[in-house]
Amino acid sequence: MIRFDKKNNLFILETPNTSYIIAVIDSFYLGHIYYGKKLSSEDADALIRLSRADIAHGVPSVNKRDKVGFLDNYPMEYSFAGTGDFREACIDVTAENGDQGLELHYDSYKIYPGKNALTDLPSVRGCEKCCDSLDIILKDDVLSLKVILTYSVYKDSDAITRSVKIINESSETLHLTKALSACMDIDMQGGKILTLHGAWGREREITEVEALPGAVVAESKRGKSSAEENPFIALLSDKADFDNGEVYAMNFVYSGNFLAKAARDQSDKVRMVMGIHPFHFNWELRSNESFQTPECVLVYSDKGLNGMSHCFHDLYREHLIPEKWAHAEKPVLINNWEATLTNFNKDILVDFAKEASKLGLDMLVMDDGWFGNRFDDNRALGDWYVNEEKLPGGLKALSEEINKAGLKFGIWVEPEMINEDSDLYRAHPDWAFHLKGREKNLGRNQCVLDLTREEVWNGVYSQIKTSLSSGNIAYVKWDMNRALTDVASLALPAEKQGEVFHRFVLAVYRMQNALLADFPDILLENCSSGGGRFDPAMLYYSPQIWTSDNTDAIERLSIQEGTALVYPMSTMGAHVADCPSFATGRTTDFETRADVAMAGTFGYELDIRNIKDEEKELIPDQIKRFRIVNPIIRDGDYYRIASYRKNRFYDCWESVTKDKEKAIFTFVEIHAESNKPSRKIRFKGLNPNKEYTLSVLHDGRARKKGENASGLDGLKAHGSTLMNAGIIINRMSDFKSLQILLH
Ligand code: DGJ
User: Fold this and answer.
1) Do residues 546 and 525 make contact, with C-beta atoms less than 8 angstroms apart?
2) Three-state DSSP state, 317
3) Taking the domain 334-473+480-507, which CATH number applies?
4) Ligand 1 neighbour 414 (Cβ under 6 A)
5) H or E element in which residue 388 lies
6) Which atom of ligand 1 is nearest to the CA of 337?
7) Domain regions of the chain by residue span
8) pLDDT at residue 675 in the model
9) Superfamily of domain 640-742
10) For a tag on the chain, would you pick the N or C end, based on fewer CB atoms within 10 A?
11) pLDDT at residue 51 above 80?
């Protein structure tokens, strides 16, 4: 899968359907010469293209000193700053004497089976049987700096992972001011750049702009991957759509500040880079110390966005998400947050559990408000001991009662934060991040703990561990409700303050690792004011992430479409909430809310004691449907068919089992129109030669249970017919949905 072509000095990385080729140019620089559909690799040397005048002129062996023409035009594998490549650099270094910049040349390589885990960082998992890796060693002789570029390719995936290790082999202290993880110089004329832009309650909106000269940037300087941008960027060919065209995508396995940038250069190539944001980043690298960058995942698809999604979903399900959960059915839960906020007590929760149990749910999750003096969101973060006034007998008594009612029990925590009104703050006011001489900056009334300090980390984690050990807890929701500001650590000297943002993220990873090591059976769900930290690094620890606080079924369609573009459906926390929606004021059908939530992990977030009887009656059947559709959605291939983001009228998607025996199709009407021809929908991904039966599981048009209002129930047709001729979906009405099982 990876080989070195000695004759032409080429590294050839092959996945089942793609080739990625790197060349040692003129025995010196490392150039990127091809990424795309699989090539006949014998021809690869033809791609080196040194005959172009502007490039050839600067090749070191031709003109030793005038290298700018080459460095600023040639597609580079890992760009460096200050010596002639004026496009975006991946690395920049300041020497002890203040000189800035570097020039990396090729030194050596190593190819080996398997993949090494990254020190202190989550990364896509590897094994000797499933992947091979390549280390390319680059050096800067003046700085005595060694840079190891690591690539891994998998037998069962078209994705390629990349990371970089930077080692100071000099006797001096260097400062890394930029250390990105990957660069791709792509030859593409025209095209579009796709990012997942957003905000709280509007996470991961698919945003496409033309790839004109100039740059498109997705970035976070918030200390978390953020709702505002996702660590993802893709370059699409002009006509690319759901199923056709080329897509080059990068996704960052990291949860902190990131930079993702795509910029068309002067010779019409697009340089894409991804890595830790250089904002407030300055890593002191003493003699013999090293710095490990997080990992970046590259995907090339010539089958449009659906092809790209399949590649990310499969890689993450097989090699990233904790193995025990990757294909497991998750509990259908009831979460009390939207119903009660922090105003609950043991009796209320036990009543929730009893009612939920009767209706067939699996778990009760007690959200924010169980600890310290937490009667509202102004206080008590940091005091991770139970509030006995609300929960007499503590978590032990509560979990016993919930279990007795027939449900598992889950709990909410927010370990990274502290309120000024808390016992922890009164004891350790200096534990919160702050800048000397400035008043602490609050966000949602809270400060961020300096978890990079050992005593702070221990002080928080030991409390959480004690509480989690005190009851029978099956699930933890780990929340994070503000961005980082005032980032400075009392434990580090001035010259190391540029390390704090990254050290904070490492401390969070360390705590999630510790939690899973101490409580291996716990199902962890990450969350950050909704979907503010939905990234592959979080998926390494938690197989599901709360997708958004916006639980309005219609808004959720585009949030879930954007999320599922990259992340497996099985990872999207999705609940049926009460109406009118607190987020939009909109009222939607209870069944539509369920059909939309079934695209993710599925649960309820409402006052289950007090919802309308006719809604309550629907719940057992919804859970029954969930158990039918979830294995298909969880383990199958996801296909986007239509998007209301684009057409404004309706939305639909489908999941097909890997053996193509079954598929589940969901359609939601957004805006019904009068006297419009009915919609023709073509299914995707079916076996053309197989006959399928359509079973309508839920029909939003039916006036009574069992009515075949769509006329589709029981229809039989071959995959070729369903995929080419398609079916007609009659007008329903606004916010109604249709769910069909094909088998
Ligand atoms: C934000 C989360 O997204 C909500 O689900 C809830 O857990 C609140 N925080 C609690 O403070």
Assistant:
1) yes
2) helix
3) 3.20.20.70
4) no
5) none
6) 6
7) 77-320, 334-473+480-507, 640-742
8) 84
9) Golgi alpha-mannosidase II (2.60.40.1180)
10) C
11) no
Q: Please report the sign of the dihedral spanned by the C-alpha atoms of residue 444, residue 449, residue 451, residue 456.
A: negative
Query: Which of 381, 444, 479 for a ligand 1 pocket mutation test, highest count of atoms within 8 Å of Cβ?
Result: 479
Tell me the residue ranges of DSSP E strands in 612-690.
637-642, 650-656, 663-669, 679-681
605 lines ligand 1 (CB under 6 A): no
Closest atom of ligand 1 relative to the 444 alpha carbon: 11
Measured from the CA of 377, which atom of ligand 1 is nearest? 11
Q: Using the mean position of ligand 1's atoms as its centre, give its distance from the Cα of residue 547 in Å.
A: 11
Please enumerate in sequence order all residues whose Cβ is within 8 A of that of 455, keeping only pairs 6 or more positions apart, or say none.
none
Provide the phi-psi class of 704: left if phi over 0, else alpha when psi is between -120 and 50, else beta.
beta
Nearest alpha carbon to residue 304 among 263, 245, 253: 245
Question: Among 49-58, 335-344, 519-528, where is mean pLDDT lowest?
Answer: 49-58
CB of 577 within 6 A of ligand 1: the answer is no
Q: Which two three-digit tokens encode residue 431? A: 């534990």
Q: How far is the CA of 391 from the centre of ligand 1 (A)?
A: 20
Q: Report the alpha-carbon angle 32-37-43, nearest 5.
A: 65
User: Poorest-confidence range of 60-64, 171-175, 665-669?
Assistant: 60-64
77 lines ligand 1 (CB under 6 A): no
Q: Is there an atom of ligand 1 within 6 Å of 481 CB? A: yes
User: What is the number of other CB atoms lying within 10 angstroms of the CB of residue 182?
Assistant: 26
Q: Is 549 a catalytic residue?
A: yes
> What's the token pair of residue 233?
């960027």
- Determine contact, residues 215/87, Cβ cutoff 8 Å: no
Of 158, 314, 479, 637, which residue is the catalytic one?
479
pLDDT of amino acid 175: 98
How far apart are alpha carbons 272 and 630 in whole angstroms? 36
Q: What is the pLDDT of residue 52?
A: 64
Do 574 and 601 contact (CB within 8 A), yes or no? Answer: yes
Listed in sequence order, the residues at least 6 apart from 67 whose beta carbon sits closer than 8 Å to its beta carbon are 58, 59, 60, 83, 84
- The pair of three-digit structure tokens given for residue 84, joined into one six-digit string: 């002639």
- Helical pair 590-597 and 553-564, crossing angle rounded to 10 deg: 10
Q: What is the pLDDT of residues 89-99, one digit of tens each?
A: 999 999 999 99
CATH classification number, 77-320, choose in 2.40.170.20, 3.40.190.10, 1.25.40.10, 2.70.98.60: 2.70.98.60
Residue 479 is a catalytic residue: yes
HSE-CB for 410 with a 13 A CA cutoff: 25
> How many whole angstroms from 529 Cα to the centroid of ligand 1?
6
What distance in Å separates the CA atoms of residue 146 and residue 729, rounded to the nearest whole number?
61
Q: How far does residue 577's CA lie from ligand 1's centre (Å)?
A: 14
Average pLDDT over residues 37-57: 73
pLDDT in tens, 461-499: 999 999 999 999 999 999 999 999 999 999 999 999 999
